[in-house]
Amino acid sequence: MFDKIDNNKEIDSPKIFQVSNKYIVTTSGSSLIIVNQSLAHQRILYEQFLKSSIDNTSKSQKLIFPIELELTKSKEITLTEIKDVINSMGFKFIVKKNSVIINAVPPIIYNNSIEEIFEDLLNDNSSYNIKESYSLSDLVAKKISKLLSIKNGKPLKLKEQQAIINQLFSCKEPKLSPSNKQIFVTLDKKDLDKNFLNG
């Protein structure tokens, strides 16, 4: 998500910083906006994966060395259930008897642990109950965005903090994470003044 940012470009008035390697603080007018970095990244990834699945506009990064994973019977059933959805999100693979060979993945996960992510998608405890969501695409997008999101506790460079803020507020629903958790809080001048009434 940070590839398009010019590392050498000077940043103008960076009113943004990270707190406790968990929150990104920025300003808007006279207000402070405090953003949970993990929930924000989940929302960004969720909308990207869901859009690519619906529009069938996903890109794939071909693996130099294909990855072969063993399939239990339950994982094979799960893969059969979600194969069209994850294929539309950029995963390219071939299913053989008791195994799956992954040939390409969405570019965003190319440098991540592909085996671990694919295993998590097919985990025996995974539940893809459409009754709990809008569609199978929605459920898979929620799961994969949570797997790939930046975790709380991770220090971020300034350009990474800016990328999250910019992309979050370009989302259709920046206020809530895919699991309906509040992503940010806004403190305006009145909120701040309440803490300094006797000052």
Produce a short descriptive summary.
37% of the residues lie in helices and 21% in strands. The protein is built from six helices and seven strands.
Account of the 3D structure:
The protein is of the alpha+beta class and 199 residues long. 37% of the residues lie in helices and 21% in strands. The chain is built from six helices and seven strands, in the order E-E-E-H-E-H-E-E-H-H-H-E-H. The protein has a four-stranded antiparallel β-sheet with strand order 1-2-3-7. A hairpin with a 3-residue loop joins strand 1 and strand 2. Helix 1 (37-55) packs antiparallel against helix 4. It starts with 15 loop residues before the first strand and ends in a 5-residue tail after the last helix. The model has no long low-confidence stretch (mean pLDDT 87).
Instruction: Report the mean per-residue pLDDT as an integer.
Output: 87
Q: How many DSSP H or I helices?
A: 6
> What is the share of helical residues?
25-40%
Give the class from helix and strand content and strand pairing: alpha+beta
Order of helix and strand elements from N to C terminus: EEEHEHEEHHHEH
The poorly predicted ranges are none
Range of strand content: 15-25%
What is the first-to-last residue Cα distance? 44 Å
Largest sheet: 4 strands, antiparallel
- Say how many strands there are: 7
Shape: elongated
- What's the Cα radius of gyration? 20 Å
What oligomeric state is this?
single chain
Strand order of the largest sheet: 1-2-3-7
